[in-house]
Predict the structure.
Amino acid sequence: MINRIDIKPFRYSPNVETIEPDEPETARALAETMLSISEQTYANSGHAIRSVHAKSHGLLEARLEVLEDLPPEYAQGLFAEPGAYGAVLRLSTTPGDILHDSVSTPRGMAIKIMDVAGSRLPGSENSRSQDFILVNGKEFNSPSGKAFLKNLKMLAATTDRMEGAKELLSKAFRGVEAALEAVGRESATLKSMGGNPPTHILGESFFGQLPLRYGDYIAKIAVVPASDNLTALKNITVDTSNDHDAIRHATDDFFEDQTAVWHLQVQLCADLESMPVESVEAWDENKSPFVTVARITAGPQTAWSEERSQTADDGMHFSPWNGLVVHQPLGSIMRLRKLAYQRSAAFRSQRNQTPVTEPMTCPFEHGAAASAGQSSQVARH
């Protein structure tokens, strides 16, 4: 049982969004720019990878448990009833090319929750999963859709080029970012360009950054370390200087014999004036704190393998638009990303040996993860 939170959440209605007249053109330009990244890496490697978050560091079989006795305003959508779901977690870093881990960019977590019942978002009618996409920062790195497109074009221009220069720049940007954080500030832009501290990915907290519908309300989501072995890794650095895949190896070492527990949390929108939908700024946690609504558990397992990579990196797609109507993504940037996610998945599916499909249950080999109580079936109450 959690304590009731003293907040009156703002109710969702379609008019909370403000749609700009040229959004379709911006969406097409964004999708084309992202595809240009995939086309460049495909031309150089012969293998199609994601336009962003191309490099995975952990591909995990997990279990999500919705907590009992949630207050009504938090018992919404997928989280309306207590129950357990199978899930897949994909841990990654942001670039669209596969870089040495010494180029330290933001970390991401994508979650696919299996066998979810309910009315589907348009375009995801053939799926029965709910996806959430998160990164280790509370604010999106571009203030608007057009700024996002501009930044993406600059990223596309450097894709698969000058890795040595990127390593040197990353080291310099990390120094500047460390100086900012020493005085209580941070820069999402610097982090996105390689200035992210070289931290252990399992010690990170992850944030959806952008709002979504939360049943009758509006929310942002987060996933934060809960078990002691994860919280102990907060701000712990990983030596990436001599290991191309240091983050992946650190993740694999952890899951050889340990179980990880995260809390999935929700921050409800209290009012649109101070917590606007069409904004990328973090919402005031004094007005509305993050509240735990579910628990995610991943037991000991092979955290990354070529087989898992073929299954998940090639054969799965994660998109905030794959899910339930009651968790519709909100805001301009969320709307603009929809087409890009669709085209990126189609690009990989058409070129790789493993087509992109939507699994009904966790597609990984079952092993020690079962010791964490893993189940691909929903326990409904």
About this structure: The beta strands are 55-66, 83-93, 107-113, 130-135, 206-207, 212-214, 217-225, 260-268, 291-298. Residues 162-183, 190-194, 367-381 have pLDDT under 50 and may be disordered.
